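ok so i was messing around last nite and threw this chain in just to see what happens. nothing serious, just curious
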Amino acid sequence: MQKIVAMLRLMRPANIITAVSDILAGIAIAGYFKEDYVSLFPVILLVFSTVGLYGGGVVFNDVFDAELDSVERPERPIPRGAVTKNEAGLLGIVLLLAGIMAAGRVHTVFFEACTWLAIAIAISALIYDRWGKHSTLLGPLNMGVCRGLNLLLGISIIPAALTQFWYLGLVPVVYIAAITMISRDEVHGGKKNTLYFALFLYSIVAGIILGIGVWNKNWVLTSVCLIVFLIMVLIPLFRAMQNPSGPMIGKAVKAGVIALIVMNASWAAAFGLPLIVLLIFALLPVSLILAKLFAVT
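result:
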């Protein structure tokens, strides 16, 4: 039982819920829920896919960081001996392969867009875990690409929708790049300039989603969602600006990760799907409870 709990800690369950919200937002953007006949099987497959891909990606993050964590984060499962490095590596491989296989079953042809996107997410996650995170410039961009591809994975439930909405995958890139950028300082503290730049990037993201909501004449519900989103991310960010210590920055990072759920609800609102907005919002308390039980960063 202790081994299972340790493996769950490696997978960051609260973060995985945010990845599920990416998929639901992407499916909403594609217009899948507006069709006359909707099968839930492809939706379930994509949810399983992102659980495997995200879970595998964060497991390998700890695998590659095992030596560093033994100094900076000795409470993590691998440094404290709850899971061996080899066991964690095997878990990561199984999760990534399961994620790719689940995506491959979404359409009748295995190597459809879903499969290629899943493969791209797995590769991008491994590149970040091994090399990307060590680069000040490319690291945040690399992590953002993983989330952008995850949104596109949801959109790919209707392959033709990718050609219409592919550019929306750039928005999570900007948002996650901001979170990743400030997360580098959660151990030793950081500089206010980094936090101000993150505020600028958050504003861009909110502005784009609101613009799409206005364009689609769904600005009221979109605005409500974005207000909740901004409250969640800005309060801890402003506190970190006043005191840019490691713990305060850590809280800003945690809030930014959890707020992804509300950001994804805003996507569903912008495309006129209030029921999906409620479904995505329902993930928020689940993620918050898991965030109390398992580490987010």
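not much to say yet. The domain at 2-293 is CATH 1.10.357.140 (Tetracycline Repressor; domain 2).
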